[in-house]
Amino acid sequence: MAKRTKLYEGKAKVLFQGSEPGTVVQYFKDDATAFNAKKKGTINGKGVLNNIISEFIMLRLQEMGIPTHFIKRMNMREQLCHQVDIIPVEVIVRNVAAGSMAKRLGIPEGTNLPRSIVEFCYKSDELDDPLISEEHAVAFGWASPQEIDDFMAMTLRINDYLSGLFMGIGIRLVDFKLEFGRIEDENGDVRVVLADEISPDNCRLWDAKTNEKMDKDRFRRDMGGVEEAYQEVARRLGILPEGGMAELEESDSEES
After folding, report:
1. Which of 158, 224, 237, 249 is the most exposed place for a label (fewest CB within 10 A)?
2. Rounded to two decimals, what is the model's pTM?
3. 56-92 residue pLDDT tens
4. What CATH topology corresponds to 6-83+226-255?
């Protein structure tokens, strides 16, 4: 196999140059980090599960008209995606008080919010992704007013869809993070598309009956059962085969 050109390596993924112009290969790692990489570890099979979960969700968002960077899943750990210019503004949607919001505002974790709240953070590990306002994003040139309008409209639609999707399989969508990027179409026009991934790595997912955590908080808080939680999300979505992880890992080995 020809050696590929690595473009970027992050905490959970590696990006390689794609074989076609304007494409990248997104490789999902088993590496796990928390608190902006201050805590590190490994979650066995996480890359495989996040790949197939994100594929499942991205395809359904595309079906409802949300433009994304996703093109296709190549194998059990890799996706082919459009190359995008990432907007350095992370968008966080909160439906239930948890994590940093609960601590910051002194709200008991698990409190249902009166309405979904959207927060912005400046994408910078060095600064611990500080909370910013729309005014910051525009003033410093991180995003234009039109781009903010575009990804806010997409964010609200995505939240409505995902909340229903997960509630239908007995999971509360507590909060989640989105990233967006710019892409130039065949006419030379630049538009905003959903990028990165949607998985238990960047969503807080709680069992609707027990409030048991089914996401990376199990790693952050040393709760154990991280692999099993990710598998349960995939199982409820109907994308984990009957043979479970053994079957997925066998497929991964054959395709590597």
Report:
1. 224
2. 0.92
3. 999 999 999 999 999 999 999 999 999 999 999 999 9
4. Phosphorylase Kinase; domain 1 (3.30.200)
